[in-house]
Automatic annotation (TrEMBL):
Main location: nucleus
Organism lineage: Eukaryota, Viridiplantae, Streptophyta, Embryophyta, Tracheophyta
Composition bias, Low complexity: 1-11
Coiled-coil segments: 474-540
Region Disordered, annotated ranges: 1-98
Annotated organism of origin: Oryza nivara
InterPro entries xrefs: HATPase_C_sf, MORC_ATPase, Morc_S5
Protein keywords: Coiled coil, DNA damage, DNA repair, Endonuclease, Hydrolase, Nuclease, Nucleus, RNA-mediated gene silencing
Domain of life from the UniProt record: Eukaryota
GO cellular component terms listed in the entry, alphabetical order: nucleus
Family: Belongs to the MORC ATPase protein family.
Name of the protein in its database record: Morc S5 domain-containing protein
Keyword Phosphoprotein (UniProt): no
Biased composition (Pro residues): 79-93
Length: 550
């Protein structure tokens, strides 16, 4: 698969129409941007301005600010330069890694939520699933998530693979570049933020390797590309620029050959960097990873995964991922499978977990009272979770946007005690924009009105169900009272019957006793008469014996 000598060369990537390589992304400070860091950085920190050599402008700065709020603090900061004349210290010895704890790489302070664990971890994982699901339009039939072993050091890695349309070299470069997204212009796609892939992989692990194969539609040749975005590489080599090494191949008549845009030296340098800092030790091992992709698709390998203080992976890929992914989408195409470690993730719609369901149509309106769009409405399903009788402490609304879960079990009515407990709802709102991490919505008037309306819906539902419950209980109590009265009447009748039967038995017993007493008296009389007769006979016998002797 190696190319013949003298083949043309190309850079690791480039924008459409570019003729020179742009594999280096320059990072510099912004002296005017004073927005506080809403994500990983602490209060008072300022995001960094990221300027790609492929182009710049206000849009690039805006995308860069979004990225700066989501990557590990310090990731985009220029490394300190020594102020004294002596040369900088040498890089750390090879094999010594940067910290494996995400929050120790900066000032992140994540907190668990209702589903357990860190919401930013779920957001990162969900972003990768979003990208694969969006590829259904390009023929994707599955996304396969698995755990692999890094053969270099024995650590664990995460693999995410789909059989979507894949990426040609230009798209690959855009994917690995900071702040670029082609999805922002595509209707009904979930992954609409240019930095979703970068921030999600950075949140799961320090380093990522992307392998993608494109079938080359429109008369283009088939291509395959390999790119690496490595936090470990940048920190340990103390690079001033964000270097993203990439290599490309194109399919000849029989074999894959190297695709170069500048010089073979640049291509070899990118390959050597990837081999040194990736889990693979040779070009052949890298190319072997394409064996599972077939005609088209993308394979993402995240390594040097972030760990907690106990040395365990932050995200439980067997439990947290499965349960969250099962409710992540309101609808999943029948042709698409989500596979986790060899087992299909079964799609779960919590509407099926409800009892006593109600359906409410909500149509948002503007402040002037007129609808923004007559077709803009949502069907809210609200009900009690079936296990509410066991006092499961769950309540709130699962709010989706363009089929994607944004706010799981949103508590719009938080009261102490058991009020509202067990009341859940599901709705899809496409008229409220999600935040950049897709774990919340942008704080707008539309969201405030939606929250107020959902609050009112839950209160009305609880009051209505409480009245229905009280009515049912009253009806049940009345039925119980009626049943008790009937039982009492039956017992009284049974008692009267028993009394009569007892009186009859007493009469019978009295008559029987009198008869027996009379019979005893008659027997006694007969006994006396018999005794008297016997005595007379004895007297006569004695008198006869006396006469004989005389």
């Amino acid at each position: 698969m190696a190319p013949a000598a003298g083949e043309p060369s190309a850079a690791a990537g480039g924008g459409e129409g570019d003729t020179e390589a742009h594999a280096v992304i320059d990072v510099s400070s912004s002296e005017t941007d004073s927005d506080p860091d809403p994500g990983f950085g602490g209060a008072g920190k300022r995001p960094r301005r990221v300027v790609a050599t492929a182009g710049s402008g206000r849009e690039a700065e805006k995308r860069a600010r979004i990225l700066a709020a989501a990557v590990p603090p310090g990731f985009l900061d220029p490394l300190p330069r020594p102020s004294a004349p002596p040369p900088p210290p040498p890089p750390p010895p090879r094999g010594r890694r940067v910290t494996r704890q995400f929050w120790n790489a900066g000032d992140y302070d994540g907190k668990p939520d209702l589903l357990g664990g860190d919401p930013s971890l779920r957001s990162a994982f969900a972003e990768l699933l979003d990208n694969s699901l969006d590829e259904v339009a390009n023929g994707a039939t599955y996304v396969n998530i698995d755990m692999l072993e890094n053969k270099k050091d024995g650590t664990r890695m995460v693999s995410v693979e789909d059989d979507g349309g894949g990426m040609d070299p230009d798209k690959m470069w855009h994917c690995m570049s900071l702040g670029y997204s082609a999805k922002s212009k595509v209707k009904d796609t979930i992954g609409q933020y240019g930095n979703g892939f970068k921030t999600s992989t950075m949140r799961l692990g320090a380093d990522v390797l992307v392998l993608s194969r494109s079938c080359g539609n429109g008369g283009r040749r088939r291509t395959q590309s390999i790119g690496m975005l490595s936090y470990t590489f940048l920190r340990e080599t103390r690079k001033d620029d964000i270097i993203v090494p990439m290599i490309d191949y194109e399919k000849g008549q029989q074999y894959w050959k190297r695709m170069m845009r500048t010089t073979s030296i640049d291509w070899q340098t990118s390959l050597a960097t990837i081999i040194e800092w990736s889990p693979y030790s040779s070009e052949a091992e890298l190319l072997q990873e394409f064996s599972s992709i077939k005609e088209q698709g993308t394979r993402i390998i995240i390594y040097n995964l972030w760990e907690n203080e106990q040395g365990e992976l932050e995200l439980d890929f067997d439990t947290d991922v499965n349960s969250y992914a099962s409710i992540l989408y309101l609808r999943v195409p029948s042709v698409f499978q989500m596979i986790l470690r060899g087992k299909e993730i079964e799609h779960h719609n919590i509407i099926g977990d409800m009892m006593m369901k109600n359906h409410v149509i909500y149509k948002p309106v503007m402040t002037d009272g007129f609808p923004r769009d007559i077709d803009m409405m949502t069907d809210v399903t609200i009900g009690f979770v079936k296990d509410a009788k066991h006092h499961i402490p769950i309540q709130g609304f699962n709010v989706y946007h363009k089929n994607r879960l944004i706010k799981p079990f949103w508590r719009v009515w938080a009261l102490p005690g058991i009020q509202g407990r067990g009341v859940i709802g599901v709705l899809e709102v496409n008229f409220v924009e999600p935040a950049h991490d897709k774990q919340d919505f942008e704080r707008t008037n539309s969201l405030a009105r939606l929250e107020a309306r959902l609050n009112l819906m839950q209160k009305k539902y609880c009051i209505m169900k409480m009245e229905e419950s009280l009515s049912r209980e009253l009806h049940i109590e009345r039925d119980k009272n009626k049943s008790l009265i009937e039982r009492l009447e039956n017992v009284q009748k049974q008692l009267e019957t028993a009394n009569k039967e007892q009186e009859a038995l007493v009469d019978i017993f009295t008559e029987e006793r009198a008869r027996r007493d009379q019979e005893v008296e008659n027997q006694r009389t007969k006994l006396k008469e018999a005794s008297s007769t016997i005595q007379n006979l004895l007297d006569q016998l004695n008198a006869a014996r006396s006469c004989r002797k005389n």
